[in-house]
Structures are given as structure tokens and as C-alpha cells.
Amino acid sequence: MKRYGSVIGLKVEKIDEYKRLHAEVWPAVLAKISECNIQNYSIYLREPENLLFSYFEYMGNDFDADMAKMAADPETQRWWGVCIPCQTPLDQRTEGEHWAIMEEVFHYD
């Protein structure tokens, strides 16, 4: 198992919409997340900075293949189509990232 944390901005005028979307995530999107070996997935909002923090645990053996599988899914693409306009990627993210991946510096079970 590997833990992942990432961060992205959220447009202030889209906060209510983003919360509404995530209060009723589409069942096919949730099923694809599970199918791609992701569990314990959470998204937190920090206001007034309007930052979203994402955390999940990856249980599979080929992260890149599972993420490609998720990205190829039409329902996931449709979901991203309504969520991405709410987000503001960080300027300092690594090339190719939408959510900026964070380094884990401490963990305690």
C-alpha cells in the first residue's frame, strides 16, 4: 500500500458547486476508483485559502496502468469535465500534474 497526498486550488465562486458534486459522487465514478485499487480516499477543503487536499491509499501493483485505466473511462472523463472547471491548479506543480503531488514527510500508525 502506498499513500498519496495532493493539493489544488478551488475557485471561490465554485465552492458550493464542488461541495454539492462531492456530496453526490456518481456511483460509476466511485466504482472506477475502487476498480483502480484506490481506497480510503478523502478530499478536504481549507478556507479562506480555498485549497483542496486529497488523500488516498493505493493498493495495486501498477499505479500508472491503473491511473491510465481510470483516465480512459468515459464516465470518469465526464465527471472530470464538471469538476475541473471548479479547480485552479497550482503554478508550482510539476509539469504534467493537475493536482500537485505532495511528499509524505511523516506517518504514524
Features:
4 helices; 5 strands; Alpha-Beta Plaits; 109 residues; 28% strand; 5-stranded antiparallel β-sheet; alpha+beta
Describe the structure.
The chain has one domain (2-102): Dimeric alpha+beta barrel (Alpha-Beta Plaits, 2-Layer Sandwich), CATH 3.30.70.1090. 35% of the residues lie in helices and 28% in strands. It has four helices and five strands; from the N terminus they run βααββααββ. Strands 1, 2, 3, 4 and 5 form a five-stranded antiparallel sheet that branches. It is globular, with a radius of gyration of 14 Å. The two termini are 13 Å apart.
Structural class: alpha+beta
Largest sheet: 5 strands, antiparallel
Question: So, the CATH homologous superfamily?
Answer: Dimeric alpha+beta barrel
Percentage of residues assigned to helices: 25-40%
Q: What is the number of domains? A: 1
- Second rung of CATH, namely the architecture: 2-Layer Sandwich
Task: Return Rg in Å.
Answer: 14 Å
The CATH first-level class comes to: Alpha Beta
CATH topology: Alpha-Beta Plaits
State the separation between the terminal residues, measured CA to CA.
Answer: 13 Å
Oligomerization state: single chain
